[in-house]
Amino acid sequence: MNLKKSEKLAEKKATSMSEKELQFAFGKENYRLMLIGLGVLALGFILMVGGGTNDPYVFNDAMFNFQRLTLAPLLLLAGYVIEIYAIMKKPRD
Length: 93
Description:
There is one protein chain. This protein has helices at 2-22, 28-48, 66-88. By secondary structure, the chain is an all-alpha fold. The chain has one domain (23-88). The longest helix is centred in the last third of the chain and has 23 residues, at 66-88.
């Protein structure tokens, strides 16, 4: 009789462990938010590119425009905030 109980307990533990192994760390919404955050980060880095010149003796004023000094860093900050929120958000069960 004790053998049957221990077998049942072992079987129950095995099934509960296999169910735990199949669970992901994040939910579907978390992964979607992470992809959105990565897209915002990529856009911020892309907007920061450029503004240089081939001739080192010629000054290019395009380096100091609104896009590179204000918009791109704000997008990067927003992207990092979205990423942190996506990681910290509790997935729905």
